[in-house]
Design a protein that fits this description.
The protein has about 170 residues and is mainly α. It has helices at about 15-25, 30-40, 45-50, 55-70, 85-105, 110-115, 120-140, 140-165, and strands at about 10-15, 70-75.
């Protein structure tokens, strides 16, 4: 089935795409992994092709391949999206939490990151961050879990306060 992919199509990763990107699975070629990394849910197909410049034709093939593989999807028409500023607190907190997980050295890092990336609200992020802290405690011990949870709370409170200040 051909997917209608216009320049205004907003692209995002599917859960499977996020999992494969995080897990660095060998069945995903490095060039496709690089293209998958570019798809963040914030850029349209046209934006990505513009960024690729002279290699736009190569990126277009890669994006269509990722669509066929079910690793990315057309999220929704751009006009239906919430403004990026409304998503900033959740995205900012999510990105900082992912960095904390990556730096933790936890053997379950890809799974934990996928859990955090799937959260869509600050409340969901808080729940998932607490679950991550529990997994870190089970795999690495209490001191590491307490360190992660302490920093996670700081991140979540910062972004909650920032959202409140801007009226979101």
């Amino acid at each position: 089935m051909a997917i209608d992919l216009g320049p205004e199509s907003l692209l995002s990763r599917t859960a499977e795409g996020t999992r494969k990107l995080s897990a660095r699975t060998p069945e995903l070629a490095s060039k496709l992994r690089s293209a998958l990394f570019l798809v963040s849910g914030r850029h349209t197909f046209g934006d990505l092709l513009d960024l690729a410049g002279g290699l736009a034709h190569v990126l277009e093939v890669q994006i269509r391949t990722l669509l066929d593989m079910g690793l990315i999807e057309v999220a929704r028409p751009l006009g239906d999206c919430a403004p990026v500023a409304d998503e900033l607190p959740v995205a900012g907190a999510r990105n900082q939490l992912v960095k904390r997980i990556e730096s933790s050295g936890c053997p379950e890092t890809p799974t934990l990151i996928a859990s955090i990336r799937a959260a869509n609200t600050l409340a969901e992020l808080a729940e998932r961050a607490r679950e991550v802290a529990q997994r870190v405690q089970e795999t690495m011990g209490r001191p590491e879990a307490e360190q992660f949870w302490s920093r996670a709370k700081e991140i979540l409170i910062h972004w909650r306060d920032r959202a409140a200040q801007s009226g979101r």
